Amino acid sequence: MERAYIETTIPSLYFDERRDAKTVARREWTRNWWDRYRHDYELVTGAPVIDELLRGEHLRKSEKLRLLDNVKILRVTDAVTEAVEVYVERHVMPRDSGGDAAHLALASYYKCDYLLTWNCAHLANANKVSHIRRVNALLGLSMPQLVTPLEMIGEDEET
Predict the structure, then answer these.
(1) N or C terminus of the chain with fewer C-beta within 10 Å?
(2) Residue 111: which residues within 8 A CB-CB, separation 6 or more?
(3) What does R_g of the chain's alpha carbons equal in angstroms?
């Protein structure tokens, strides 16, 4: 079974209540994937996701956390921490030890097939894939596919 790393934006968008068109579309695609397709994958996440969801006050916080109740939480190892440092040094990811670099390092280190995210600035960004692939090769890490729920459900489900 393929392994999918669930990044923070997935539970966040699942329960997002904003009504602008972009958010509504992302929320519906996220719910569609989660409700219909998640069982086709081994779902994993990382402690940084839980930490991000616990921080601050935001609507439906407990529901976002509960969505991940049956998702395995990957441990941050020394090798993961080292990968985070290299991503930042090589300008692959911004400096934020618990954020994007940590998600990428966890998904790469634990050989996830997919990193599922709505973060299209730093993660699911075609312009960054070759740079990430080169750095992961230098680190001896696998390269997850960096995808959104829309890409995982396919074009037939867009409407």
Answers:
(1) C
(2) 3, 142
(3) 15
Spatial neighbors of 24 by CB under 8 A, at least 6 apart, are 18
Exposure string over 63-73, b if 16+ CB within 10 A, otherwise e: ebeebbeebee
* Chain mean position to CA 96: 15
Lookup: tokens for 6: 């669930």
Alpha-carbon distances of 66 from 16, 61, 63, 69, 141, rounded to whole Å = 15, 9, 5, 5, 30
How far apart are the C-alpha atoms of 32 and 7, rounded to whole Å?
A: 16
| Structure confidence by residue, pLDDT tens digits, 54-94 | 999 999 999 999 999 999 999 999 999 999 999 999 999 98
Q: How many whole angstroms separate alpha carbon 140 and alpha carbon 47?
A: 22
Dihedral of alpha carbons 4, 5, 9, 15, sign: positive
Determine the Cα–Cα distance for residues 121 and 136; give it in Å rounded to an integer: 19
**pTM: predicted TM-score of the whole model, two decimal places:** 0.94
Tokens 């994993």 — which residue? 44
